[in-house]
Amino acid sequence: MASQLFGTIILVLAGLFVLYLVIFKAVKDGINRSVLGQQEEQPQQPAKPSWLDKDLDN
């Protein structure tokens, strides 16, 4: 009886680990293929100066 319970616990933990790996890979690939993921790979362009930068109150 105890060995069946131990085996069941091991199988459940192994299944949860495999499920974690599948979900992790799917989410990571989904983010990398999304518009935001593509934007992160491109270098940041410098911000163009605003009219507020010339404000005399600074």
What this model shows, in words?
- This protein has 58 residues and is mainly α.
- The chain is built from 2 helices and no strands.
- It has helices spanning 2-33, 35-41.
- The longest helix is centred in the first third of the chain and has 32 residues, at 2-33.
- The N and C termini lie far apart (77 Å).
In short:
With 58 residues, the chain is mostly helical.
Strand-helix topology:
Blueprint: H1 2-33, H2 35-41
Helix pairs in contact: 1-2
Annotation keywords:
2 helices, mainly alpha, 0% strand, 58 residues, single chain, 67% helix, rod-shaped
Residues in helices, as a percent range: 55-70%
**What is the CA–CA distance across the termini?**
77 Å
Order of helices and strands: HH
Beta-strand level of the residues, as a percent range?
under 5%
Which sheet architecture does the biggest sheet show?
A: none
Shape: rod-shaped
Count of individual helical segments: 2
Strand runs, count: 0
What's the mean pLDDT score? 82
Structural class by sheet pairing and helices: mainly alpha
Poorly predicted sequence stretches spanning 5 or more consecutive residues: none
Rg over alpha carbons: 25 Å
